[in-house]
Design goal:
The chain is mostly helical. The protein is built from 23 helices and 4 strands. Strands 2-3-1-4 form a 4-stranded antiparallel beta sheet, with helices on both faces. Strand 2 and strand 3 form a beta hairpin. Helix 2 runs parallel beside helix 4. The longest helix is centred in the middle third of the chain and has 42 residues.
Length: 522
């Protein structure tokens, strides 16, 4: 075979011209607006993809077409690492799905790209949640060729987080569907990065024979012409990595590794790492170490352990076995650390589920939808009004607290409203778990919660509030919304002698005053 059967300066492309991309030409074919943007992305023309998406969105009105173009634009932005531009698009796509519904393949694609965004933002919890929801949607559409793209997106993200068995299974789903599709579908499903990432993971954890078998299969089976342009450097890396493990092949992997594009940072990473591997093979291990010591090479989407693993191979080639051992120890540490993160997430997930189950049990008596907040399952404002009216009518007293989340606006801005909704759900669960039996909790609206502590004096209520704020602050927000911690500020007032409106106004002002003091201290 000839894995490098393309000229060094030529990328596989879909031969798209500007005339092909006019909205008038695209309106006749189903999903053509989305495909126009996607093909530019696959051809390593991400900036053009985003510009084309914006032009199309200005003229499209059908919700299905708008959703498709939004998802294709989102993929292009993610490939360019333009993460700050993604949350509004995710929110807009989700709003379309909620308002107009969507085909299972489109729902699956939404969750696939949302999972990739969450991974790039560092939120493993949100990433896995979207992957599970995406798989559930896609499994409901077994023969729809539109599911090829989302299954591949799922496979890529599964492989990025180290779930390689799930990644390979998702890729096989795509391949099964593509057998009855177009040549373009089959080119998309070839996607060597999924198997390359599996292979380097196997080698990093000591299964070098299995890694070599996976890489050898890729090198023997695929040509560059079989792939979309964005995947060609992965075939070059497969060849380089196979060679450093002792494999042989025909062709020049550097020609494929040079098919990189500055709009696609991943291809630049692959070129640098592939060159390092080839320097080892060609008897220049010190050149490899110089490349691997570059700060730009420290972070790679082949896993954090790939750089120290290549360093270990280079040190072996230099005859420095002590340094090679130290580098391999770093590999072991990084793999164990990644596993610990998944174990912690599993425990945290079980805890959150139990909290939410307890919350649902506590509010089951408020089954009337008119009195229940649909997002958190807490009593809503209407039920709060009825509860306080009944309490005061019976001559009861207590304390009312108005709580507002600190940093919640930043959560929505940085991570999008879907993550914001999950934060609200988890806050509701934490507050419900921490309150005493007989206390009342409602969601008033937005990020405001209201508590009622019946039969409680103001002095006693301060202790309850301290527990609530501590519980919210101690919750692990780093997995769900990394870089945007969440805390709680609350104002308290006595209910005796006044109705809900007056008590709420007074507690709200006290809460805002407390926020002002915090801002002044900051």
């Amino acid at each position: 075979m000839r894995a490098d059967d393309l000229p060094a300066d030529e990328l596989p492309s879909d031969d798209l011209s500007s005339s092909d991309l006019s909205s008038g030409d695209l309106s006749s074919g189903e999903d053509e607006p989305r495909l126009a943007v996607a093909r530019l992305n696959w051809a390593n023309r991400q900036i053009e993809a985003v510009e084309t998406a914006d032009r199309l969105l200005a003229g499209l009105t059908a919700p299905q077409d708008v959703l498709g173009v939004l998802l294709a634009k989102l993929s292009a932005l993610l490939n360019m690492d333009r993460l700050r531009d993604c949350p509004p698009i995710i929110d807009a796509a989700w709003a379309l799905i909620q308002e107009h519904g969507a085909r299972p393949a489109d729902v699956g694609e939404f969750h696939a790209v949302a999972a990739f965004f969450s991974y790039r933002r560092g939120s493993l919890e949100r990433c896995i949640t979207d992957l599970v929801r995406g798989a559930q949607a896609l499994e409901a559409t077994t023969a729809d060729r539109r599911a090829v793209r989302p299954w591949i997106s799922m496979a890529v993200t599964y492989s990025l987080i180290g779930f390689h068995r799930h990644a390979v299974a998702a890729q096989r789903h795509a391949e099964d569907i593509a057998r009855f599709g177009t040549a373009e579908d089959r080119r998309l499903t070839a996607h060597p990065e999924i198997r390359v990432r599996q292979a380097v993971f196997l080698d990093q954890r000591g299964e070098t024979g299995a890694a070599k078998a996976v890489l050898g299969d890729l090198v023997d089976r695929l040509n560059a012409s079989d792939l979309i342009a964005i995947e060609v450097p992965y075939l070059g890396y497969a060849m380089a990595r196979y060679a450093v493990l002792g494999g042989s092949y025909e062709g020049d992997p550097r020609r494929l590794l040079r098919l990189r594009h500055q709009e696609f940072p991943e291809s630049v990473e692959l070129s640098r790492l592939g060159d390092a591997a080839l320097h080892i093979v060609e008897g220049r291990p010190q050149h490899a170490l110089d490349l691997l010591g570059d700060a730009r090479t420290a972070q790679t989407r082949l896993g954090r352990a790939e750089v120290p693993r290549l360093k270990a191979l280079a040190y072996i080639a230099c005859g420095d076995h002590a340094a090679a051992h130290a580098a391999d120890r770093e590999v072991t540490y990084l793999l164990a650390r990644a596993s610990d993160q998944v174990y912690d997430l599993f425990v945290d997930g079980i805890t959150a589920r139990l909290d939410f189950d307890e919350l649902r049990r506590n509010v089951s008596r408020y089954a009337d939808e008119a009195q229940t907040d649909p997002l958190t399952s807490l009593p809503n404002r209407r039920h709060l009004e009825r509860y306080v009216a009944d309490l005061t009518a019976r001559g009861g007293s207590g304390v009312l607290g108005v709580a507002d989340l600190d940093g919640f606006k930043e959560v929505n801005t940085v991570h999008g409203h879907l993550v914001g909704d999950e934060v609200l759900q988890q806050v509701a669960a934490v507050l419900s778990r921490t309150l005493r039996a007989g206390d009342f909790l409602a969601r008033y609206g937005g990020d405001e919660f209201v508590i009622v502590l019946p039969g409680t004096a103001l002095a006693e209520s301060a202790e309850v509030v301290a527990r609530l704020t501590a519980a919210v602050a101690a919750h692990d927000w780093a997995d769900l919304a990394p870089g945007t911690p969440v805390s709680l500020t609350m104002g308290l007032t006595a209910l005796a002698g006044q109705g809900l409106a007056e008590a709420f106004r007074e507690a709200d002002l006290l809460m805002l005053k407390a926020k002002g003091k915090q801002g002044a201290r900051g």
